[in-house]
Amino acid sequence: MGDFFLHLLGYVNPYYLQIIVNIGIGIILALGLNVVTGLTGQLSLGHAAFMSIGAFTSAVLTIKIGMPFSINLLLTGFITAAVAALIGLPILRLTGDYLAICTLGFAEIVKVIFLNLEITNKALGLSVPTPNTAIPMPVVVWIVVLLTIVCVTFIHNSRFGRALMAVRGDEIAAEAMGINVTRYKVQSFAIGAFIAGVGGALYAHFMGYINPSDFGFLKSVDILSMVVLGGLGSIAGSVIGASILSAAPEFLRFMANYRMLVYGGLLVCMMIFRPNGLMGGTSFTEMVLRALGRKPRLKIIMEQKNSELTRSGNGDT
Amino acid sequence: MAILELNNVTIRFGGLVAVNDVNLKVEEGTIQALIGPNGAGKSTLFNLITGIYTPTSGSISFKGKAVSGTPTYRIAAAGIGRTFQNIRLFTDLTVLDNVLIGAHSRGKWNLAGALMKLSPWVQKEEGALLDLARECLQMVDLTYRAFELSGNLPYGEQRRLEIARALALKPAIILLDEPAAGMNPQEKSELMAMIKRIRETGVTVFLVEHDMKFVMGISDRIAVLDYGEKIAEGVHEEIRQNPKVIEAYLGKGAADAHA
Amino acid sequence: MFLQQLINGIALGSTYALIALGYTMVYGIITLINFAHGEIFMVGAFVGLFATAILKVNYLVAILIAMVVCMLLGMFIERVAYRPLRKSSRLSALISAIGVSIFLSTLAQMLFGANAKGYPEGVFPVKQITIGSAEISTLQLLIIAISAVLMISLEFIVHKTKIGKAMRATSEDYNTAALMGINVNMVISFTFALGSALAAAGGVLVGLLFNAVSFNMGLMAGLKAFAAAVLGGIGSIPGAMLGGLLLGVTEVAGVASGFSSYRDAIAFAILVLVLLVKPTGLLGRKIQKKV
After folding, report:
1. Residue of B88, B105, B117 lying closest to A170 (CB–CB)
2. Which of 3.40.50.300, 2.60.120.10, 3.30.70.1230, 3.30.70.260 would CATH assign to domain B2-258?
3. Cα–Cα 20 to 30 A to C100, which of A5, A25, B86, C22?
4. pLDDT, tens digit, for every residue of B199-218?
5. How far apart are CA C148 and CA B82, in angstroms?
6. CB A271 to CB C95 under 8 A?
């Protein structure tokens, strides 16, 4: 199968291949942040820190132990999630702006630590060998993209996801509904970090070189812009936002220099004119179902049950 | 049997004593009302019962077990549902989702369940929660709104939705904080019928309300709070004629004139 | 040695305090972390640089010019990027503020280049004064003196003038202040103007102190000043001053004891610790959970 993919990729212009992979990694990172900020409503300004923890962890695992890439990816995800949970436990008690600033501070600390650690080669950064996988890297990246979309969609439409949305909506009301707000915040933080860690690992192995300075505040803003552009809380939005912002600088060469300028203006304008993002709160599943001309399953069940009820109600009278 | 018991409950905010040495018993299966002028500490009392505040002194027990000091979410899951004086719905979610969130503690599947969403076990639980949510919506006549955003509902329906959401906890007792506020007479009488229906399903009702007519028409027992202290308790007639209550509501002169 | 480090710390800390005041005042009134505040400080440093280099004015005049320019900038930003969001969620306002910050720093990079620039020589002739074993530069004394004058003026404005009273009322309770006939929009504009002016003065002073002005100086300085504001208790003006000084002294002490490569992490470590141990800061008021 690997040969087949390799053959297929042979036809793709390497330049475009690079863009396609960048888009994939962008989508993964945006989806992770979307769980934390979009779904749970906790603004994180340090998402790049988790990406960097993932990138360096996986790089070290590859370089020092030569761990197989698939296990490496999973382990990296879990390590990143564990770090996030450890950090999240104390700082997620903070609300709103304080939390945002704390995540930013945490990200800066992570950067400074990596810049001073021997094992991450200090400010020089690490060269990462291309992993020896049966399937070529670009395909691996996109498999992970699809898996992430599926998992995040499942999370959205579940008891777990509803609890996260309750936390986003109103913490006091959520507690009064029996939801352990702190626990769900930490879990959401850990999920976001898991996804970011995996994204970072893919980035490290695809790029072949990582430097702590690549994962600074601007990278976090980069990811946040993707989520905000697409619409906080919308999976389809994150996918589209990440695709646009990852591809735009490549296709609009003139934009490369203005990139951050555009992002800045974009964040302000989106908040003022279209706070729900491009996708405006519609969900992926709904879109697909509507395109197929079908109703969501939930709606069908409800309607069925209601009609049963009216029928039995009529029988009584 | 008293399902909810407050023993010498006091809470101070800085120098202010918001609730002072209150003793109160809510009997199982009754509709208990709590009335009192603005700022008497009624909502604070609800916040104490649900664990949002911890009493400075005194204790609260639910079904014979002490709950003061327990986190809010545990108290809720143990079976105390509530609504809020200033409506606190999840306005960006649908009516159905609001009620499903209320049913949170009746489910078990967490992150693992989300990832195994299509497995029969998780599907079964989701189905059960959906049934529960539907029953609760039925109870407050909001089924027809199930897929609308809760923030778009008119005021009276938002109040009812809060009740449905609290019922989804399958609570043993439900605390209603000014459920009739802002409703017209027609809506109020519908609400009264609704609350009676809720009681018939075996749920004890404890409500705070301003509207005397509403309170008198629905409750089995009434307690009166003034400046954080319980000044009276009893059935309708006792309360109506209690000079302290009249004084609290109408001022001293009125109480003398009445006497 | 100790005295010298202390003076170093106080000089650095005064500039943090000047920036922190803007954060704290704005937060006190509209509970927004004005993320763009650090960029206003950066713009102030650039305006001061151009005033001394091109207009050849005295450094005091340069500070004044920078203050006026940044006042207008601060009010403009509030009008364009924050006022339309006053009724939206705080998350939206904060994201908008981050947007403004990114926009301004990128714009500065495009206009003024990526390299740090120094103030022209002789703008402020620095002399060293020896007190005991300590060598103190007149520049440090100037920074401390100007900061002190500005902070005393601020205290005067806030506590002795009519607009100051309106500011305090608005920060106490926004809605009630509006009902009492206070022009809340005007008060908010004024608060942004005051805070921005102080940040601009800080910008020129820091530019002189490190003799370097660059497009990205706002982010780190802004974050540290924010940490100072939180340390002192956000919303509290004396708190911001105290927090700034403490942070400056701690940072200098940290660098002096050999942690210079962790310099930027010190402020954040302090910030995170303070938020966890005493979220209301040293001089902040206790916040009652509203239900």
Report:
1. B88
2. 3.40.50.300
3. A25
4. 999 999 999 988 888 998 89
5. 53
6. yes
